[in-house]
What does this fold into?
Amino acid sequence: MTDLSSLTAADIRDGIAAKEFSAREVADAAFARVEALEPQVRAFNQLTPELAEKAANRIDAMVAAGEKLPPLAGVPAGIKDNMNLVGTRTTCSSRILADYQSAYDCTAVRRLLDAGALPVGKCNLDEFAFGSSTENSAFGPTRNPWDLERVPGGSSGGSAACVAAGMATVSLGSDTGGSIRQPGALTGTVAMKPTYGRVSRYGCVAFASSLDQIGPFTRSVRDSALVLNAIAGKDDMDATSVTQSVPDFTAGLDDGVKGLRVGIVRDMLELEGLAPEIKASVEAAAARFAALGAEVDDVDIPAARHGLSAYYIIGPAEASSNLARFDGIRYGHRVDDASDVLDLYMRSRAEGFGPESIRRIMLGTYVLSAGYYDAYYGQAQKARTLIIEDFAKAFESYDVLLTPTTPEVAFKIGEKSTDPLAMYLSDVFTIPLNLAGLPGVSMPCGFSRGLPVGLQLIGRHFDEATMLRAAAALEADLALDMTPATVRSLKA
Amino acid sequence: MAKDRLTEVLERYEAVIGLEIHTELTSLNSKMFCGCPVEFGGEPNTRVCPVCLGMPGALPVPNEAAVEATVLAGLAVNCDIALWSQFHRKQYFYPDMPKDYQISQYDLPFCSGGYLDVEVEGDAVCERVDRSGDDEYTTRIGVTRIHLEEDTGKMVHVGGSEGRIAGAEKSLVDFNRAGTPLMELVTEPDIRTPEEARRFAQKLRLIIVTLGVSDCSMEEGSMRVDGNVSVRLRGQTELGTKSEIKNMNSFKALHDALAFEIVRQADMLDAGEQVVQETRHWDVGAKRTSSLRSKEEAHDYRYFPEPDMVPFAFTEQWVQSIADRLPELPDAMRERFMATWDLQKYDATVLTSDLAMAEFYEAAIAQAGAGRAKTVANVMINDLSAHLNAAGITMDESAVKPAMVAELVGLVDDGAISGKQAKAVFSEMVETGEMPSAIVEARGMKQVSDTGAIEAVVDAVLAANPDEVASYKEGKTSLVGWFVGQVMREMRGQGNPQVVNQVLKDKLGG
Ligand SMILES: [Zn+2]
It folds into this structure.
């Protein structure tokens, strides 16, 4: 009997179409895996078996009626719990929204489900996506399926962990500074942040509006392309989504990298604090690209070194504004004994937000204050412009760029939670892409002490296709077995 | 407030006034950043959606028609249109503001650097002490900027007095208005008298109504005027401390509140006191301003560029395409009325002071003919305006239609009815909405101008009053009026007075 939880999205759809198994059976397998692993992994804030069952029945009815199946028919999907879906709570892993019922559907989620996916549940995250470990969740941390003592990364840790553990075949995350790619690297999944504007942000609770982008976690590059096919494209509800035509991202995926110009971002590879095994894995991957016929050379993105500081001004500035609406007036946590409106605001928010949210709100409020705006926000925007220019220059000579995804593999729960600055460094390689609006994908490229190592491929604006083609070529060449320990132990 | 108290103060002090005028773009189909309809009132929280309620994850999408309306308004008041502009977030917490920030504009508004020329004439000139010798004057008021933003919801305070927050037990919020497109115009501090402020606001209102983007109802709050006012001794160049006046819900309130505030500030300075920079509330009942909050509580709004929207890049061609849509503006229309129909400035001003009035006039002329332009104007300015004022209704609500006025004027002009009969016909027309000819017919009011018929009556009257005829012939010619009266009585008022007069003179004088 096929292990339905290990199949790719493409295999699931084809298997259902060929009547090898039903969508209902795929859903049951996913929830069986949830039953087996979720108690340890804790990837979900809420499970949605009824929604999944309904969706599966609809797919099975289509099969019975001989209809053509949509591209993600019967594919179990996790949804980061900062995206609205009617019939579910959207908590952002925060006390302030613990009981918040979605009032409408997030566009990307709607598109994913319209493509036939089965919603397994809402995935845990660092509160409001503030963090790199999923430890900042009001509902407790998610654990890494490769080592339950370790973090899955964050903020989309639940989305990463559920796909790694086979509780879902694909999932949606959101990435503001690395929140898809970093947990992707730490869990050995394929994790893509599309170009800013490629996917509608409507319905995804905003962290930093100019940086946020929704993208997929999958266990194969082809699945990543399939999910992007489903969720990409202009949405009239998001003024920053672009009208740019959406190609079929699976087309040409297997065309190889012959003649492709791959730039190794050398100054990132030489960064102090980068684990030697990660550096070695990325160098080895670069060598494989060369062996596959790509033209590989070094390139520098000097302005990227300003990325982290610019990000920790722009991100909190926008976040402080975006989180103002959680005020206890219309929805969310509200103290019931407020003496006046100010008291209501202050105590509802103090009780509702966790420490990292409060830290970012204060940071953001400070940098936007009168007299500080130019010194902080203004400077950060200038740094952002420099980063955009440096990438643009690099892309004059290269088709894709190559960096590590993270400086370290998955760290232990609690290891960095008292040191925000050390935590912030987790995103040093991913942040510059958000500032520049560029697409990036993290994919497994090896192991360090039994834990997955990820590399990041960066594409030109709206050229996810070339980036994915390079990723697919390396994936086929490396042919890594990315089954985590917890899943192996189930099979044993 | 007695006007002479204000003018007395203005002889010693110069007032410096700037206005901030918010106009809801009520004529648009949808709100500023979502698809909800723009309408006044309604069941609370029925015209809302995730976007205008600030639900988690909802995003604003700018209403292009609102942007165009703002640019149109900017062009109408001679502004420069920025080819690069942007929305900003203005941040402060308030329960009627769903996102706890208002999407507004900061340093990159759509329109800047415009002006309006405002005319003041008649008694109102006296407020402008340095021009009090003139019959009228024109002054140019600079328009600093016009920008676009979203309106807030409305708070309802329950359990307190008069719906004010003080003493209220709880507060409710209605978000129907939240997100309504709101255009804010800021003037330069070029205004020197309350009358100029009123004239500016009235003229701006007329222009915006003419543009068809708002109903500009001060009562319903779709046009809201706030004023910044300070005073300084004449000859002094430094500005005095200003106060900001809110809650001026009519043009009269605007004038009276500014007049009160000028005198209040001058009295303080006279008494050796300091004016405090603060926001003050106009109490229309008490006819005074009172302090709302002082400057110490002023907010740091932490403006920053709205990241949910891309900046606006306009081309010259696009701006020109908006300019091509500008309708005839009130000043131009007045010039045209004066030139085309030979109207006095006063008459043309009255007729173009209200778009419905102007349209009515033109429709009536189209039927009555250009030769009757003046008489039509007279009926409208005297009778129709008085009727509308007395009934407290608008032109649209009146039963009187252009065709009726045109016909009425024609009946008088042709001598079919007398001027006096016309007044009676008008009164009935206002009530019934009947055409004048039908009223004249039904009431048998036709004026008799037939000389033969009148001669017969005149002969009878002269024959019946030989003593008076004798007196007249002896030189008491003033008796002619008495004879006219007798003839008209015989004819039940339907004789054409001019013909009667002529026939009488012919018969008496030989
Ligand atoms: Zn709405």
Observations:
- The longest strand of chain B covers residues 136-150.
- Residues 451-509 of chain B form a domain with the Arc Repressor Mutant, subunit A fold (CATH 1.10.10.410).
- The mean pLDDT of chain B is 91.
- DSSP finds 16 helices and 16 strands in chain B.
